[in-house]
Here is the input.
Amino acid sequence: MSDLFPASGTVHWVGAGLSTGSGLARLCETAGRVRLWHRTEERAAEALSVRGLTGRAEPRAYTLEALTAELAPGDVVVSMLPAPEHAGLLAVCVTRRAHFACSSYVSDAVLEQVPAATEAGLVVLTEAGLDPGIDHLFAHSLVARAREAIGEGTAASYSLTSYCGGVPAEPNDFRYRFSWAPAGVLGALRSPARYIEDGAETTVDRPWEVTRRHVVEGEAFEVYPNRDSVPFVAQYELPPEWKPRTFVRGTLRLEGWLRAWEPVFEELKRGDDERIAALAQELAAAYPTTDADRDRVVLAVSLEVSGANGQTWTGSYLLDLVGDEEESAMARCVSRPLALGVRHILDGSLPPGLSRAAETAVRSSEWLRELALEGVEFTLRVSR
Here is the structure.
């Protein structure tokens, strides 16, 4: 493996949308220099002012060309742009020998550039937000605890569920509050989901059609699977001797969401791309996110293991945060883990190549400890 290219101390935070929160402020405290890139320099300056960061970070008008011109070797680029734009940014980073970080899932286009980044000694940090991100940390921690309790090499069966959602703190008729672009929300609903249920892989084209009730700490929610859960069996290091009864990563919504969204689902069934794009704009106008709104983030990850020798182990993590006047819960839960990962790039503790928020149980434990100190609160329950 190539040697790690040392970080310069300069961070370029690209984008100041709904998920840019106090993580940016944390970086202003630790990085040598921070630049915030937004649509215009005025919008970037306004975003800094709202967050009390005027004079602590430099506003910039974003274009890929403008960013490229200011990138120096060892700089860190943090992409808060839509996931399809990450690959273009990473390509520039490799060319200019800069490190890269984002909170999104690893795409094929990003993976294609990882070998070149690794050879150049660069860190490519991904899946370092809330979901994906903190959910990985919780899962790794639970699996490690269960392995210790059940014993290595012991046959067992298990159920792992990981559900996350941003919802309104005060329930509304729509049973939802947009914490990211409506087009992205609709796009996710149109994507098939693969997961394990009753010990068998299952695929559904319309995830909302398998929505079910899910109780967390006595409160009823509605949940459905999303994306492809199956690869995470290996990523979470579940022992091959353990057979999954259930393994699903999915989305959590308020009770009543399925009924409230029936007109949206009808559009999704029959609409083409043009109509769905228009629907996203209509929903954004009909259900705007205002400064007076308060959001709530709920992330519930649980693992139940039954050993062949009669041993049982159950563990669960719960993160349940409500936004305040300073920032939304979603912005806090996405930006703080990401900023933590960037700080690890700056201090040289991440290796060259692809990293996620959690690659091992040991690293997950370290990140959870640091996040707790950062004010991201969560609870752990374990029983045998």
